[in-house]
Structure formats: structure tokens, C-alpha cells
TrEMBL record:
Organismal lineage: Bacteria, Pseudomonadati, Pseudomonadota, Alphaproteobacteria, Sphingomonadales
Molecular-function GO terms, alphabetical: 2-oxoglutarate-dependent dioxygenase activity
Keywords assigned: Dioxygenase, Oxidoreductase
A Pfam match: PhyH
Keyword check for Oxidoreductase: yes
Full protein name: Phytanoyl-CoA dioxygenase family protein
InterPro entries: Phytyl_CoA_dOase-like
Length: 303
């Protein structure tokens, strides 16, 4: 029972996926309560005041070019490139994918590798310049605008993405989805430019808002996940609900937008909104600082 009051999202959980509780509308009650609590937390901590903060609040994401001053960016870029080369000399990039879906983490002294389908994710521990980024006050306000909670600085990584071949193994991160049932934040601060072929971030503007159409969709997806659990279909029990692109318009949402960006661009997104990893030419790479801020949804105190 306790799990329904946490961030637990998978319907394989006996309480989250409980058929009786879900018949009583539990999933949507969790969604609505989590929305109200994150609004309450935010009211305690931060109010959007700049154009970039209002954009994040209203559209669910923001891309900020030239985020750091040129000298600070150059120092961070040099540190990041040295760290990537150091990791590659110790552990050459693995050749191929292992499994469908999310692979296991392969740990090393510098961090870890993980495949999403054919896409390799290499997470490298941040150096001092990268660690300082996580303490940037302008960045920290953006994290609070999404969640009403300060982002722990330890949840930051230097993140190299090596795009795989979709023909070989599908990467489920390339399907539109929302990460979880409450407001949560991810960021990518791009060290190298991201071109259209490099798998740019794709987001559906305004899809973080809890409209009546969205609530109805949440209910439908929860019902399907409960049904999958009763049938023992593990794939259907995910709590990261997928959405077909053609369904977006039915929810009153606009076309998705892809965001190829120059280096020194910060993208912050509310991943309750629909997003995906963009299409990419196999072998292309992205390099960013990255963090995932997913505070417990039912704690009412902001920070
Ligand atoms: Fe996601």
C-alpha cells in the first residue's frame, strides 16, 4: 500500500497495478494529487520571472543558447573532452547492443555504460567544472520551476550518447512517451553542437499540462497497464506510458518540435510532457552534462 504514496510507477507493483484500486480511479487520483502538490511546493520556493522561466513553465521545456559565458564554457568543454578521451582509452566504446529495451549498467572506474536498444549511453563522473555547473543559480531556479524542489548536485553526469542502428535493435527512447506520472525534470547542457542527424531532443510543447483530455488518456493507459498485469504481459506494465504521434492531435496538442542546438545550449524539460530522442544517423554522437531530477511526488514541502 505504501508504494502508492511514492514515485513508484510500474504496474507490476502489486498496489500501483491493483485492479480494484484502479477501478476506483486510483491512477488519476495519484496524477492529480501529484500535480497539486508540485504546484504547492513551487509556490513555496520560486515564481517564474524571466522569459526563459515563463517559457519552461508554459511550454514544458526551454532551450537556452549561450548559457555560460564563453570562458566558462571553454573550460568546461576542455574538461569534458579530456574526460571522454580518458574513459575511451580505459574502456573503448563497446561494439554492439545487447538486449531489447534497457540493458544493464556496465560499471567502470570512470562511470558506466548502458544500452537503450542499439543506442549506447556512456555516463562519466563529472570533473570540477561540470560539478560547478550543477550549482549555477540560474540553472537551479529552472529545476525548482518544474518540481518545486532543489536538484541534488550529485545527480549530474557527463553523458555521451552514441546513436545505434534502428534496423538492428529498436531504441524505445525514440518513441513518444512521458517518463512518469508527475512533474519531473531532465536537463542536457550540450558541450558539442547537436545537428539534425545527431538525434536531437524532440518535445511536444505544452504537453506537460494536465488537461481533461490528458487525464482521460492517463486513465485509458492505466487501464491497459492493469489489464497487461492480469495477463502477465511484462512489457505492458511499464509506467512510462507511450503515445502514438497521431494521438497527440486528439489530445489537442501541437506538432512535436526537434531541437538541434549549438554548443553551450541548455535544454530543460518537464518529462511529464511527451518527448523522445530524435532520429539519428547510426554512429553519430552527442555530448552533454545531464541530470534527472525526480523528487518524491507526495512530499508537500518545497526546497
Ligand atoms: Fe524520457
Amino acid at each position: 500500500m505504501y508504494s502508492i504514496f511514492t514515485s513508484m510507477k510500474v504496474f507490476s507493483d502489486p498496489w500501483v497495478g491493483h485492479p480494484g484500486l484502479n477501478r476506483l480511479g486510483m491512477h488519476n487520483k495519484r496524477v492529480k494529487a501529484a500535480q497539486a502538490i508540485s504546484r504547492f511546493r513551487r509556490a513555496q520556493t520560486v515564481r517564474p520571472r524571466t522569459a526563459e522561466e515563463r517559457h519552461l513553465d508554459e511550454q514544458g521545456f526551454v532551450a537556452i543558447h549561450d548559457f555560460l559565458p564563453a570562458d566558462r564554457f571553454a573550460a568546461l568543454r576542455d574538461e569534458a573532452h579530456a574526460a571522454v578521451e580518458g574513459a575511451a582509452s580505459e574502456t573503448p566504446l563497446p561494439a554492439g547492443p545487447e538486449v531489447w529495451g534497457f540493458g544493464d549498467s556496465d560499471r567502470h572506474g570512470w562511470g558506466f555504460d548502458r544500452f537503450d536498444g542499439s543506442t549506447l549511453n556512456r555516463f562519466i563522473r563529472p570533473g570540477p567544472q561540470a560539478a560547478a555547473f550543477a550549482r549555477n543559480p540560474r540553472f537551479r531556479r529552472l529545476a525548482r520551476i518544474v518540481t518545486g524542489k532543489a536538484m541534488p548536485v550529485r545527480r549530474n553526469w557527463l553523458y555521451q550518447t552514441v546513436n545505434g542502428d534502428e534496423e538492428e535493435i529498436h531504441d524505445i527512447q525514440r518513441e513518444f512517451h512521458r517518463d512518469t506520472f508527475f512533474n519531473a525534470m531532465k536537463y542536457w547542457y550540450f558541450i558539442d553542437p547537436v545537428d539534425a542527424d545527431d538525434g536531437p531532443f524532440v518535445y511536444v510543447p505544452g504537453s506537460h499540462l494536465l488537461t481533461p483530455e490528458r487525464l482521460a488518456w492517463e486513465q485509458k493507459k492505466a487501464n491497459a497497464a492493469v489489464h497487461a498485469r492480469m495477463k502477465g504481459d511484462r512489457g505492458g506494465m511499464t509506467g512510462s506510458f507511450r503515445i502514438e504521434e497521431r494521438e497527440l492531435a486528439r489530445l489537442g496538442l501541437p506538432e512535436p518540435s526537434a531541437y538541434p542546438v549549438p554548443a553551450n545550449t541548455l535544454i530543460v524539460a518537464n518529462v511529464f510532457g511527451f518527448h523522445r530522442r530524435g532520429d539519428a544517423v547510426p554512429g553519430t554522437r552527442r555530448l552533454s552534462l545531464y541530470g534527472n531530477h525526480r523528487p518524491q511526488p507526495f512530499i508537500p514541502f518545497g526546497s
